[in-house]
Amino acid sequence: MRVHDWLIAGVVGLFISGCAGTQTAPSPETKAALAPTGKLRVAFITAVIYGMKDSATGELKGVAVDLGKELARRVGVPFDPVVYTGNPVLIGGAKSGEWDVALTGIVPERAAVMDFSAPYMELEHGYLVLAGVSIATVSDVDKPGVRVGVLERSGTDIHLSRTLKNATLVRTKSVAELFALAEVGKADVISIGKPGLFAIAAKQPGSRVLDGRILVEPIGMSVPKGRDAAAALYIGKFVEEAKADGLVRSAIERAGLRGVVVAPLK
């Protein structure tokens, strides 16, 4: 099922090192609306599809980092990543003014406190079955006694809360906790975006990502509601350029993501 209908014209950025963008620099008024502190505070949760710390260098890397850096460069301010462990705290940050631009899935709950761009990326969600669990297809998951691990208030949690009738959801507050479910035997199945599932599978011998998908979640950029409309318009135009120029695709390829595609042009 495709998640849609909640897009509000507005928001986004992009990246590719060394490539000059075609979008003009913002006016002083728009720049102040985008980055009122003099820095572009770019929010995302720690996850494979957004950004993770490199285990060797400790440096943040990923699509959200690449896009955030490029947007900050075009606006003409420093890039300041604001990293959260889960969606509830990121949503809370929109209300308290902790960030200027966020990269996150477009779902109704977030659209209530954020103004979104059209999506820059579409994320397939699915299931990973842990070793020793006799589930072969997506339709086998919704059975009594099956425990499905999900990230609290994620697109998957919202979708499965409506659609699963027999299986039990096991919610975690962070991606790290979700990954840990696979290690301690507190879930039979993990459900999240497919890039995350492949990351878990690589560390869990005998686990497997099921064929098929349970939904496709649009991923966009947003500004907190109440911000000057010029900020949303600027990043909305930026996202369309980034998709058209191949910058989003390059960022996805740099991150080595599987199970995501560039969103169609608006």
In a nutshell, what does this entry contain?
The chain folds into 2 domains: 28-122 and 218-262, Periplasmic binding protein-like II (D-Maltodextrin-Binding Protein, domain 2); 124-209, 3-Layer(aba) Sandwich (D-Maltodextrin-Binding Protein, domain 2), CATH 3.40.190.
Write the layout of secondary structure elements.
Layout: H1 28-34, E1 40-45, E2 52-53, E3 60-61, H2 63-75, E4 79-84, H3 87-96, E5 101-105, H4 108-111, E6 114-116, E7 121-129, E8 147-151, H5 155-163, E9 168-172, H6 175-184, E10 189-193, H7 194-203, E11 208-209, E12 215-224, H8 229-244, H9 247-255, E13 260-262
Parallel strand pairs: 1-4, 1-5, 8-9, 8-10
Antiparallel strand pairs: 2-3, 5-12, 6-12, 7-10, 7-11, 7-12, 7-13
Helix pairs in contact: 1-8
How would you describe this protein?
This protein folds into two domains: 28-122 and 218-262, Periplasmic binding protein-like II (D-Maltodextrin-Binding Protein, domain 2), CATH 3.40.190; 124-209, D-Maltodextrin-Binding Protein, domain 2. 33% of the residues lie in helices and 24% in strands. It is built from nine helices and 13 strands. The strands form two sheets. Strands 1, 4, 5, 6, 7, 8, 9, 10, 11, 12 and 13 form an eleven-stranded mixed beta sheet that branches. It has a two-stranded antiparallel sheet with strand order 2-3. A hairpin with a 6-residue loop joins β2 and β3. It is elongated, with a radius of gyration of 18 Å. The two termini are 20 Å apart.
